[in-house]
User: Fold these one by one.
Assistant:
Number 1:
Amino acid sequence: MRQLGWVIFLISGHLLAVPPQDEPIVKAVEKVRPAVVNIYTEGVVTQEVRDPRDIFFERYFGGGMSRGNRILQTPLRNLGSGLIVSADGYIVTNQHVVDRAAKLKIKVTLADGKETEAILLRDDDLLDLALIKIESKEPLPYLSLETLSPNLLGQTVLVLGNPVGYESSVSAGILSAKDRTLTINDLTMEGLLQTDAAINPGNSGGPLVDAEGNLVGLYRDWE
């Protein structure tokens, strides 16, 4: 016989049993998950490089047999997550998920498994944010940006995304710190939030929400 687990809360001196389907975190995931998408980009990066035979003849024979530069084309693929923020298909994600999208094909997989192509509307590398758009004949599930989390230190937060290309996963942690500054090479990002929620490659661009399903921010992995 299958047994159900229960979560016990102590409220004002009284024990209150809550079945799993009524747990606040379960409710928050049910609210947010339909609006989380998988984003896959693919394309080709073109580089002009010297022919290695030119380098050889120049080093040992003083040149004279130049064949000119070669065009090297390297496949570029990227994987991440995103959040639908309007019923007509606007999606926010990290800029690095759709980096160089002018030469890339952006494919979006919805929570129900449907696939469609997206176009890049705007991106900002300083904020690491991008806005993309998909078309749909039916209104899409979305997470409203009108009600945002208060972002309190120590509050429970959830990460939803599509790690390493799998269907959406959920991990939980707390909001560990606010207003962090991070410098990577020549890029300095300020006002960042920090959490200890577990993530994997592919979670970038997915939502970080509180226990009521209100948006805290977009998650970015720093691998």
Note: The chain is about 10% helix and 45% strand.
Number 2:
Amino acid sequence: MTGTLTRRLAAASLLAFGLSFPSSAPAACAPDSAVVITYGNGMYISPARARVQALLMDAKIRPSLPGGIAPVFTYSYNNSEDDVTQVLQVLGQAFDDAAIRYQSWLNAPSGAPAPFRNAVRSRQESARVGNYVRDADLNAHVARYNADLGAGRRVIVLAHSQGNFYANHAHEQLSSTAGFGIVSVGTPAGYTAGNGPYTTLTTDKIIDPIPGRRAPNTTNGAAFNASVRDADGHSFSASYLAGDVSGPKIVGQVLSVLAAVGCPATP
């Protein structure tokens, strides 16, 4: 009798302990399984061009997403005023202001005159992370990511070029990284925060000379390379997203990160 009573008291104590200190359950995703896939832009990209890139991402990635996911494709814009000013000073030696205003060189460096491309490349080679991150832009990114994650939405940043510096720094400043992931494209950074995957082309002339960058790991087919209109091999849409090898690879990386990040740790 005593043994039975002891066992019952022990069981009651364990039950009471369990009710008082419940084990944490996995966080649930938002009811609509919403996912925000955002483009982190590189240098010399206007907000209008960033919106176009988000639309191109939508067309490329949406068809491959699993059923039941409600994706939102957007962009996390960052400015590059200081570097643009310095490059324009170089350009000013050879081109007048009117030509600079009416050409699309800031949006498509590969189509720019050689002095412009050389100036861009020179700035990239001598760059340090501090040159590329504006606190106001970074703070806006972090606030938005925290708001999406707090609402139960997973966030995947598809970061291109300079955008990788912003994505990496944002990862470090988030309230929680559960549900957040980064896929790096043409990255000048030496790592991807959260150990995310990356795609950098062997033909990317902008990234190749940057010291400390992750090694190129992807080559598109010869036929594609012969047809692409991107002299520097660095364009997010023309060389990476549309690439016969890099395009499917990037889509696969987005899917793998989406599956791996889990759901946000909502309150």
Note: Confidence is low (pLDDT under 50) at residues 1-27, 86-108.
Number 3:
Amino acid sequence: PQRRSADGIGQIQTALGEIRTVRLSDGSTMTLDTDSLVTVAVDGGVRRLRLERGRARFAVARDTRPFVVTAGAGTITALGTVFDVGLSPYQAVSVSAVRGMVDIRADGKWSAIRSDRATRLAMGYRASYGPETRMEIAKMAREELSANAWPSGLMSFDGVPLSDVIRQANRYGVIKIVLIDPALGGRRFHGTLRLNDTKRLAAVLAHAFSLRVVEEAGALRLSPQ
């Protein structure tokens, strides 16, 4: 991913298929996934950021000012850590503690956690919440832990259904991959892929499952040979 510097206040976004890493004015770094947008206000007494869409990883520099990310109906406060925050189009939020811990305050309609109380998320755990759902916390599964390399543009899959691999790939590509036979989607893939190189990715999947790739109608269609 490309690394750039960022001023204290403003917006940072990525295009479809782009992964970008920026250094904030306080020395923290932020990596934005494909088609993501973050509003930054790193000044004054609090370092404030808002995830407007997509996903971002925050690697927080030591500073006396709190580092707070708002996403959906909640806020995440860093405790000297590296963490991911994702926001769906339906305002569902996922938070993953990659290294260290975070405190989460979620104010959704059915959340058990209100703004005056925080839930502490330990390393290796994931939390999810939404405007109409309670917060849920779970230990990250093996495939989630292996997906932590996404800022490099790579993602590892260990027995993941082919349909899920393609769904992940299609988040990054302008050209979409389509399975002609949906029954193939249940076959399991093991390996590491560069998600933002759609044509090469389709070729790797075709080779792995003895499929044929045909590019037509703006899509890469995978079918049995």
Note: The two ends are 35 Å apart (CA to CA).
